[in-house]
Design a protein that fits this description.
The chain is mostly helical. The protein contains one helix and no strands. The protein is rod-shaped, with a radius of gyration of 25 Å. The protein starts with 7 loop residues before the first helix and ends in a 22-residue tail after the last helix. Keywords: Membrane, Transmembrane, Transmembrane helix. This is Cytochrome C oxidase assembly protein.
């Protein structure tokens, strides 16, 4: 026989936990969305891979 009495603090904790969960899901959704936009953009991805990036090199007029 288990004790099934819920105190008022349990309801407040549940509300806070749901709020924190919603905020975390929103944050993950924003990061995921930004990643998808960055990856699916028309520009090629240029990571830091120790190679010359011709798109940012400045050409001399000489």
């Amino acid at each position: 026989m288990a004790i099934r009495v819920e105190h008022e603090i349990h309801n407040r904790r549940l509300g806070r936990n749901v709020g924190v969960g919603i905020v975390l899901i929103g944050f993950v959704a924003i990061i995921f969305g930004l990643t998808i936009v960055k990856v699916s953009g028309g520009a090629p991805i240029e990571a830091y891979d120790h190679t010359v990036r011709h798109s940012i090199t400045v050409e001399d007029g000489n």
